[in-house]
Design brief:
158 residues; elongated
Length: 158
């Protein structure tokens, strides 16, 4: 379970999740009461945000189901994951989480949500750096080959 959560190589991630979850409650105050930047409340952008959120949620569910299946098996015979969502990007879960933060900011039209998006982006990029070092240590050339042919977050782009 610790390996699946990444605690073995990134003990701070669970703390960051807790910190941001508490701070993001302020976004609802902005949306419902403060309206710090009312120009961000645009129905077209909010609709795009809802569609992006739905797509990100579906992608995240698919990724989590795939991960649950892999981590339920024998971890002593693990190998680089290259099937399911991992055939498209190396970090499908983080890609979905970043997309959900963009969707959150668009949908609620909150400047605070955009600040938190950049915080989440930093946390996820930090996590990816630590996770990739861990995976290189575990899988060596097998992971290098996979990383060489598969984008981090956006298929064919990055």
């Amino acid at each position: 379970m610790e390996e699946a959560a990444g605690v073995t190589y990134d003990p701070w991630m669970l703390r960051w999740i807790t910190i941001f979850a508490i701070l993001e409650l302020s976004v609802f105050l902005d949306y419902g009461h403060w309206h710090l930047v009312p120009q961000l409340e645009n129905p077209v952008l909010q609709s795009i945000g809802l569609v992006l959120y739905l797509g990100g949620a579906i992608w995240l569910i698919w990724t989590d189901r795939y991960l649950a299946k892999v981590f339920a098996g024998d971890l002593s015979e693990r190998k680089v994951m290259t099937e399911g969502p991992y055939r498209f990007v190396r970090h499908p879960r983080y890609a979905a989480l970043v997309a959900s933060r963009i969707a959150f900011a668009l949908t609620l039209g909150s400047i605070l949500a955009w600040f938190f998006f950049f915080g989440w982006l930093w946390v996820n990029l930090r996590r990816v750096r630590l996770e990739e070092a861990h995976l290189r240590e575990l899988f060596g050339d097998e992971y290098e080959a996979y990383a060489g042919r598969t984008a981090r977050f956006l298929p064919g782009i990055y």
